[in-house]
Amino acid sequence: MDIETVPTEPIAGQKPGTSGLRKKTAAFLKPGFLENYVQAIIDGIGGVAGESFVIGGDGRYGNKQAMQTLIRMLAAGGAKHLIIGQNGLLSTPAASCVIRKRGTKGGFIFSASHNPGGERGDFGLKYNISNGGPAPESVTSAIYEATQTISAYGLAEIEPVDLSTLGTVERGEMTVEVIDPVADYAELMGELFDFEAIGKLFASGFRLSYDAMNAATGPYAKAILEGMLGAPEGTVVNGEPLPDFGGLHPDPNPVHAHDLFETMASPNAPDMGAASDGDGDRNLVLGKSLPVSPSDSIAILAANAHLAPGYAKGPVGLARSMPTSRALDRVAEHLGIALYETPTGWKFFGNLLDAGKITLCGEESAGAGSDHVREKDGLWAVLLWLNILARRGESIREIVKGHWARFGRNYYTRHDYEAVETERAEALMAELKGRLESLPGTTAGSLTIEASDDFAYRDPVDGSLAEHQGLRILFEGGGRAVFRLSGTGTEGATLRVYLERFEADPAKHGMDAQEALKPIIEAAEAVAKIREHTGRSEPDVIT
Ligand code: G16
Fold it and tell me: Ligand 1: does its nearest atom lie under 6 Å from the Cβ of 87?
């Protein structure tokens, strides 16, 4: 096998963000960009000689071509064995599952998650480590360092691999195995959930509408829901992964999953609505005219997890990202178990899961998961909801309302200001940060500020410190506003403002969240001058 060594130089803009590296497709696939970044991963993880890897992706434009380049580069680095999802497809949680099951050194996932795809959309690549989870800061820093010093990359002269045909082929010294992307994952789901009870639920006429948004989850949802669980054909909509997601923006929120929200608000709404994102790790669950906020969803899943066979003993501990609402904290308190508050990013749950400190974890950004893999898992969340519905015999509305009545309601919303000029967004954060210490005791809008800080997290397992993870403002009465810049955008900066307040009184649980949070929203504007800084009169997306 001949290896071509191509001289190169560092390319700007190769710093991995919250979840790998994401860019506009045209920039990522510009000659040399992908190759440089892949070589930096290979060098950053200490080489690939003699090792096995999983390769998959969400099916977006450019994936198949990029995978052939990756295969050539891993062969040049001396990798021994590659396991690739058929047609290059593996949802992020399925890739995590296969990495763990097959014991590989890691995996490469081609995805820009919920960002739009296609030639004019976004492209991304993330590296997951042997536990199946996103590379931690130590690894992404090493990768970033390698991008700064790179001088050449290696490409093996080998035939392309036919990714559409299942089976094993040899390329140089390396074997390449093309696998069914669904099988291992479906088997794991069958071990965790009461498929018999869920099957009976569907047989009794329960109706689900699952929007796979023309992205990675389609084949999984069809095989498991319609195939194994007997849900009627048509339960899964937009079930074919398409390179441009059929023009959809595969982000399951009220703006981009608009059709599903309409279906669920119509008089003939099914019993449950659900959606997942581009790479299948996010989830959205809706009852009839009742979208479940992700922060409530993870709290409800945690409170009821014992109803699923895989979690029969109940969770040992729980975790949420800092901006996620504190509904989960109330469940942890009730169960008498630990609650960990981590920075945004699934990678921060990895050590807690590996150390057996937590069983379930979740984030406000539509992510929920457990120790079954090391990624958040969209279809898993939907199956756990189905398992709970089947066992409790109640509707989603009854379960959500019952949860609020029992634990109180944490009203919650997130306001996103997208594609703001980077300097303007950074100025807002810098200015607020500069005033943080002087805020307690002052008023913002109609509220007094009780405390404020710049969130930092000391990992309880390895002691590593993550600083500057979001600005927190606590108001009298327990309300909270959090300010953070997104780590996943590809255009300018996205300012996220997270707003929350607790309401114990069940008579006040029926309010519209924006209405209930009005004093907090006004206080956040007063303290940070969002309109003035961003030049926007209102958020682009409200979730
Ligand atoms: C990624 C991470 C999530 C994180 C989210 C935050 O999600 O995997 O753990 O919550 O980013 O995004 P941002 O920094 O934009 O707020 P995904 O689904 O994009 O991989």
Answer: no
